[in-house]
């Protein structure tokens, strides 16, 4: 079994270098088989669980399979619980990475805070000369940047910049260096957005370009690195750079989209960033192409809900500004529908309320677009859907159990008892050792108006 685990680790390493999906599939299959079999020794179990977490999180990145991500978190937690001594750094850093990856999809603050705690513990357990110190520093940097985007505390972002720079300076394996460089670029762009200090743009663009140049043409991470470079170039143009920077930005994003499967979860990010670049360039055909890109992002079936929502909110604003109320109404209707998915049942009630507060005014904007098209019915529907998200969810959860009781009284009684226990806890009514895991969630959102999840869209 140890040989099987080691083979899986080697295949996963080769995937990091080459992007060969068959290597990833075979590695995952070997580790899943090992997970169901006895493994001798603590280190053997640790290697199995940590490597399985890395493989499953990568599978999620490639396919968008959320079940793989949940299984990755479970495996990483098992590994962190088993780890001791020098292996503890490895296990904790992997746990931090997969928790952050799940936070990027589901926006559960508990995942984010757990990721930060695990990353800090991993850094404390990492020797200054460790070859993977850069990867640990980068993971901590990105979790802190995520917290800034969620909470708005600039101290988190300042610390993130420090750690991201230290990560590139410390270095890591050859396969992981482009990730550190592109990650630094992402965090620097966020810092520029937050502070208005454009002196960091040259550093951000240089780091992003180094990541692109250091990545094989057929590697699955290349599209993400191209997108991040495109955003850095657009930011340089906005700060007074030549128009050629914006043209290169559009070209990079078009190439990234062309080389990414349409159903890949990252496609919505790429489409949103392309729309932002086209919006900024604003050529003869750019307005229509940008609007189409934002709407494609909003209709993605695999992207995180908050990414889709930000895309259609931008489409709504741009269509309104362009005197196109019909498109604005369509975008507004989709945006309001997404609010229910954003405040999903897996979040605590305070987190759901916070997520909805970010989008205060969105339902009114969608209703205004409906009125502009002459549809009072659509306007009222948007207002009702937008203002009653939590109440509607509660009503859905309180489905009467009388019909179930007619056929299975014992089951209905058990459900009532379980629901009562959950309510009594103060919760909501319940609805009836490969290298450290690569962090592949580092997209700098190209949206100009809505720069981070904690910012509400402007009133129309």
Task: Give your account of this protein's structure.
The protein is mainly alpha-helical and 460 residues long. Among the domains are: 1-115; 261-398, Serine Threonine Protein Phosphatase 5, Tetratricopeptide repeat (Alpha Horseshoe); 399-430. The chain contains 22 helices and no strands. The chain has helices at residues 2-18, 21-35, 42-63, 66-82, 87-106, 109-124, 133-151, 154-170, 177-195, 201-213, 222-238, 243-258, 267-281, 286-298, 305-321, 325-342, 349-358, 362-372, 376-387, 389-397, 402-407, 409-424. Helix 5 runs antiparallel to helix 6 and helix 8 (154-170) packs antiparallel against helix 9. The protein is globular, with a radius of gyration of 23 Å. The relative contact order is 0.09.
Give the SSE layout.
Elements: H1 2-18, H2 21-35, H3 42-63, H4 66-82, H5 87-106, H6 109-124, H7 133-151, H8 154-170, H9 177-195, H10 201-213, H11 222-238, H12 243-258, H13 267-281, H14 286-298, H15 305-321, H16 325-342, H17 349-358, H18 362-372, H19 376-387, H20 389-397, H21 402-407, H22 409-424
Helix pairs in contact: 1-2, 1-3, 2-3, 3-4, 3-5, 4-5, 5-6, 5-7, 6-7, 7-8, 7-9, 8-9, 9-10, 9-11, 10-11, 11-12, 11-13, 12-13, 13-14, 14-15, 15-16, 16-18, 16-19, 18-19
